[in-house]
Amino acid sequence: MAETKPTAAPAAKSSTSVQPKKKGNTISWIAPLVCIISGYLIWRFVLGADGNFTKPDLEGGFWPNQQGPKSSLVRMYQGGIIVPILIGALLTVVTFVIERLMTISKATGNGNIAEFIRKVQYHLANKNVDAAISECDKQKGSVGNVMKAGLRKYKEMISVSELDTEQKVLAIQKEVEEATSLELPMLEKNLVFLSTIASIATLLGLLGTVMGMIRSFAALGEAGGGEAAQRLSEGISEALYNTALGIGTSAVSIIMYNVFTTKIDGITYGIDESGFTLTQSFASLYK
Fold first, then answer.
1. Phi then psi for 161, rounded to 5 degrees?
2. Torsion over CA of 113, 108, 269 and 256, rounded to 10 degrees?
3. Strand blocks (E) in 78-237
4. What is the pLDDT of residues 249-274, one digit of tens each?
5. Structure-model confidence comparison of residues 92 and 217, the more confident one
6. Please, what is the Cα angle at 178 between 166 and 23, to 5 degrees?
7. How far is 39 from 41, CA to CA, in rounded Å?
8. SS3 of 54, please?
9. Vertex 37, ends 35 and 205: CA angle to 5°?
10. Distance in angstroms (rounded) separating the CA atoms of residues 173 and 171
11. Contact present, 169 and 283 (Cβ < 8 Å)
12. Whole-angstrom Cα Rg for the chain
């Protein structure tokens, strides 16, 4: 008799319901450029408007030598060319704070994440997968999206007979991991701008202060008597605006960066708990 070779059982198709999100990140390179240009326009035409000074430089130009500011805020103009860069950095921070608030708020979904997971656990314990998927549609957000992808694979694995329980659990776990890998980059996107500005804003402020001090002491050497002391005190005051603006921008960046990372950690924890819930539920109910 001819010897027949044993054939392996057909493996289940490794299909996935997770689809990559096709979203551009145009704001990441447009926003900083627009903000820096806006910073210069604010510095030159708002703070540096001729009407804000008693001795305006009517010739104008890129950096007119305006003298005699009428208010303390307008005095910021005389802090030098670093000031518009710092204003642009502050506007960039505000832009990405608004963008991240909108994105992370959407990713958080509707309602409490812990309560949502408890509802899904209840439906799975009753072997009602469709009701659990409906909860995901209500919750939305990153946790809801990952849970929904896992539940679809969960439902698919119930009817698969070619695999053992361990293989089915691994398939569910893989689906959750794929969905997670698509959600997390969206949450962390553009945070690098906040962390970078938090690091360099103070240094830019100090650079502006040093440049202002150099100009002040140069003017001190040209003048004499009481006029020299007055010009020195004015120069120091103007230079310190750079430091104040740099420190303020850096402080806002650090605070908001920490707020966003804390919220992302909460969402990430919810995603991890979702994956654990699905694998443990399947392993216990469908042995």
1. -110, -10
2. -130
3. none
4. 999 999 999 999 999 999 999 999 99
5. 92
6. 165
7. 5
8. strand
9. 70
10. 5
11. yes
12. 30
